[in-house]
Design brief:
Shape: globular
Structural class: alpha+beta
Helix content: 25-40%
Length: 201
């Protein structure tokens, strides 16, 4: 499982977000936050889900500590949500984390949502490639992103910055491709804490 998720250069089979609350500050390379932290994890792969949930449950039920650098943390609770099933071609969405998309002409840079045509072309192409890699099927139709009350901004990521959109947006396309985006995350870097979003039924 670790090899499938991390060791190989591949599409990541999950997305996640970490919320550290309002009392958080970053000083240089040091981040300080008051607990509790909330981790939201999403995947459309049952084996990945079972592996993640099994590990989390073990730490929680046995009250085992999670040692992260010099910090000792404990899992205080687990909440498994009912699956969200997409049966239409339009979703109203809100991002948990930034939606980021590499510029195909210069992968170091991120595409801005202000260039709607280029952003949508690249997003649809990438998500369809990922869908085919996971399912073996070529999806019909295109994925379309429409920004709402949010903004494109730079966020600190390791030793640099990544551009991404955060806020509300509309997503349209074939239901199976929308379901895929909801389960696995939207755009690039989903395995690094980007691309997770919620949607209205």
């Amino acid at each position: 499982m670790m090899d499938m998720l991390y060791a190989r250069k591949s599409y990541k089979r999950f997305s996640f977000s970490v919320r550290l609350g309002s009392e958080m500050r970053i000083e240089g390379e040091r981040l300080e936050a008051k607990l509790p932290a909330v981790v939201t994890f999403s995947t459309g792969d049952l084996s990945v889900f079972n592996s993640f949930l099994g590990s989390a449950t073990k730490f929680w039920s046995w009250e085992e500590p999670l040692n992260i650098f010099s910090n000792t943390l404990f899992i205080s609770g687990i909440n498994v949500q009912r699956p969200f099933l997409v049966n239409k071609s339009f979703l109203k969405c809100k991002s948990y984390t930034h939606i980021t998309l590499r510029n195909p002409e210069n992968p170091i840079l991120s595409l801005s949502t202000k260039d709607v045509g280029k952003f949508n072309l690249s997003l649809s192409s990438y998500m369809k490639e990922k869908f085919t890699a996971f399912t073996g099927r070529i999806p019909e139709g295109e994925l379309s992103f429409e920004a709402g009350g949010g903004e494109f901004e730079l966020v600190r990521h390791y030793n640099g910055f990544v551009g991404g959109y955060r806020g509300v947006f509309a997503l349209s396309g074939p239901p199976d491709l929308l379901q895929f985006a909801y389960d696995y995350g939207l755009g690039h870097r989903t395995g690094q804490g980007f691309g997770l979003f919620s949607a209205e039924g």
